[in-house]
Specification:
Low-confidence stretches: 1-17
Radius of gyration: 19 Å
Mean pLDDT: 82
Strand order of the largest sheet: 6-5-4-3-2-1-11-10-9-8-7
Shape: globular
Helix content: 25-40%
Length: 188
């Protein structure tokens, strides 16, 4: 009986009940056509004495991502496969056509693959390191493409194995500067 209890304890510590695989995670992330919620963003840079903080709402679907920043000032950014649109607080709209720009198209596809859990695109474009850490899963992506790698070192994501959402995303630029997004109130 004593051996059974020790074996059971070791089994549940090594193989937690809520364990999730990379394939299962990608299925969970793609289970919904639309994900929206709130975000907070913290940018750190060597040139800054303290982090830059912002917050707002987001929406992700198969067409792209929309960020609506509410604080410290209002702005909107929309990214899809062919363009980036920025709308400032005064309503001024700036569009960047990326349809003929291979780097933009690659970055747009990458962003879409990350947030929509496109496993094939992630494996093609990144060295993927995934771990279920019990209470959370952790996904680290390192770009394979030299052009993207010159600007972006890693993308890391964390989430709860029991849900179909992600809690945090950290982007580390090649310079060492970071952007940490924390997500909440996600709905589908």
């Amino acid at each position: 009986m004593h051996r059974f209890l020790i074996f059971s304890l070791v089994f549940f510590l090594v193989f937690p009940m809520n364990a999730v695989t990379f394939d299962e995670l990608c299925e969970k992330l793609t289970a919904h056509r639309v994900t929206s919620g709130t975000f907070s963003q913290e940018k750190t840079a060597k040139a800054l004495k303290k982090p830059l903080l912002s917050s707002g709402t987001f929406r992700i679907d198969e067409n792209g991502i929309e960020w609506r920043t509410e604080k410290p000032f209002k702005s909107t950014m929309k990214v899809n496969k062919t363009e980036l649109i920025q709308i400032s607080a005064d309503g001024k709209t700036t569009k960047m056509d990326g349809s003929s720009n291979a780097v933009f198209m690659s970055v747009a596809d990458t962003i879409s693959a990350i947030f929509l859990g496109n496993k094939d695109a992630l494996n093609t474009n990144f060295a993927v390191d995934f771990a279920d850490e019990g209470e959370t899963w952790h996904l680290q992506l390192e770009p394979k493409d030299a052009t993207i790698k010159s600007a972006l070192s890693t993308i890391e994501m964390w989430g709860n194995p029991d849900s179909d959402t992600f809690d945090r995303v950290k982007v580390t630029q090649a310079s060492g500067d970071t952007i940490l997004y924390t997500f909440a109130n996600q709905t589908h």
